[in-house]
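User: Can you model how flavin mononucleotide sits in this protein?
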Amino acid sequence: MLDYTGVDGIMIGRASLGNPWIFREIIEFINSGNSVPKPSPKEKITTMLKHLDFEIQDKGEKLAVLEMRKHFGWYMKNMPDAAKIRKWINEIESKEELVKLIKEYFSNL
Ligand SMILES: Cc1cc2nc3c(=O)[nH]c(=O)nc-3n(C[C@H](O)[C@H](O)[C@H](O)COP(=O)(O)O)c2cc1C
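Assistant: Here's the modeled complex, given as structure tokens:
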């Protein structure tokens, strides 16, 4: 769109859900034409846990955990056993359980 129509900006919505790295990927591509490697599992879990903490600071644990179920589901997209993990995530009600599940999952990758 930038090349074809010369627009001043583009909006990115759904593609950022579970993939906040899309912004650095686009910036790098615009600036250098290079692709940025996908985030490593370590970077992914670090971001997920940080996202959870921000959400808890903002909304309190109960609501944050409920809202993070869907975000964690998006982060898990295309990962091994995603459907099974998503089902477990959707039954979780506390930060402690959620963090435990995610850490166990990533340590077994
Ligand atoms: C997570 C998310 C955040 C968004 N934030 C904004 C925003 O801050 N301002 C705005 O005008 N639109 C916002 N939108 C709307 C989209 O940017 C806009 O509708 C866009 O055209 C949809 O693009 P998409 O096909 O990538 O979802 C947001 C949408 C999503 C899903």
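A couple of observations from the model: The domain at 41-107 is CATH 1.10.1200.80 (Non-ribosomal Peptide Synthetase Peptidyl Carrier Protein; Chain A). Residues 10 and 69 are 28 Å apart (CA to CA).
User: Helpful, thanks.
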